[in-house]
Amino acid sequence: MRRKSFADMECPVARTLEAMGEWWTMMILREAFRGIRRFDGFQARLGIARNILARRLAALVAAGLLEKRPYSSRPPRHEYRLTEKGRDLFPVLVAMMEWGNRWAAPGAGPAVSLVDRATGRPLEPVIADAATGRRLDPRDVTLVPGPGAGRETLEALGLAPSAASAPSRGAASP
Amino acid sequence: MRRKSFADMECPVARTLEAMGEWWTMMILREAFRGIRRFDGFQARLGIARNILARRLAALVAAGLLEKRPYSSRPPRHEYRLTEKGRDLFPVLVAMMEWGNRWAAPGAGPAVSLVDRATGRPLEPVIADAATGRRLDPRDVTLVPGPGAGRETLEALGLAPSAASAPSRGAASP
Question: Can you tell me the ipTM of this complex?
Answer without folding.
Answer: 0.85
